[in-house]
Predict the 3D structure of the following.
Amino acid sequence: MFVFNPHVCRNLPKVPPLDMENSTADTKETEIEGAKIGLCFDVLLVVLTFLSKPETLSMMLTCRDLHKEGIKQLLSLDIPLHEHNIALYGRFMLADPSFRLSYLRRLHIRVPKTEESILKMGNVLYDVLSHRPSLGINHLYIDDSERWLIMNPCFFDLFLAWRNLEHLVFEEATTQTCQFLQQIEADLITARIVFNSRNPRSRYIRHARHDIGSLLGKSNLRLQELRYDGALLRSSTDRFPALHTLELTMNEILDIKPLVLSFPHIRSLRLTTNRQVAIGHPSGLSDIRGPNTKFQAEHFRWIWMDRLSGDMGQIYALGLTSSVRLLDLENHVDEDNHAFVSELLRDTSPTRLRFVIRLHSFPVSILPVALRDASGLSHLYLTISLRGFVEGIDDTIRMLVEQLGLLPPITHLVIHWQKIQFSDEDMVTNASDLSRINFATLGQQIMEALSSLRFIGIEGTGCTSFYCLKDEASEDHYRLQDLSEEGGLQVIAAEDMRWN
């Protein structure tokens, strides 16, 4: 671990250029020594980029040059501004506004709760930023954009003038924020817009005057990652040709047409709905799915995706039949809705699958049935959710091993036991069902039952994980190599088996 010692850089002299041809022997030695010091200073500038904020402040106290370089480094950091530090920030920036504003790269605003505090904070910040209208700020984050723009309307045009913006995050967005997003012309690369997250069932979301089809149309050419929370999408007015990652959480989107027309080159898609209803059986969504699949067949569809995740009923209803490398189903799969898993495996042919089962409502005997169409599956991340104290856990584990042995020939398996609710007995005895499971024994039993496995990981809430790798000497002989937790997590990361 690097430990900064401020004494190594105190009083570094100014170093003249090294002139070897016109220097005497004595001056050559002096100039060479000066060049070494200059090199030391250059190294310190590189080190400065890796320091924490306290370490940067310590280095800034050593000499004038490093103080200046330290200011540049601090101004590139993400420092949240709020009502308690805005006055100090204003004095700091206005001490040398021309120099300091030229190196400001990030603006992170935490909007106060009271209107008076919002106005005071806005006045100080506008006084600072108006000294240099053409700023180099490329990150803008406001945690309550609607109240900020309404209470401080002068920032509306100020933000629009920032053409260097590349990363934008607005939370608690409604009408005023949508008007801003319709007009912004910066070359954004990433954007995340949250519509009224403090009341996600709000009337605004259900009856929005601005659906996302009209937003960011003037900043669409370079945009690569886009995330909306609480969105409607009824139209496809603009195309986003460079967009490869799209997340639409808490949305009400059941029409595929505006999605594929607006975002033709998607490689990663996440969809979750705010409809709090049971999704039932796939046949109940055929009236929605039919027109969606027909449109894609006749006009356009995504051919291949790196990742598809979210609500399995919504994915099915949209008729998404692209080939997928990684399919992440966020619903709890149970006895009533497991048919969706089979349908989506048939639709998308993933090589990697993650899904969650509730042990109290998902008989493990139907696991092979749910995965019967996973012919190309090689990696499985299975989360088993336990609710309270489960009777007969030993019999359940025995059945689980038997059913895993009937799966398609997968090579990598991770089972995560998730304890979501503890019983009275757990609280009294400080134990849970998980403490009764021998992860090492379970992992070895599964390895024997499913001969195609090359790697297995067994994880659990509050438990020590077990990871094992099969080391094959020949087709008939192999040995199991236990891995440390670090080694197991490295395999999981390398195989792209854990994602959020």
Observations:
- Residues 1-21, 30-37, 200-209, 426-431 have pLDDT under 50 and may be disordered.
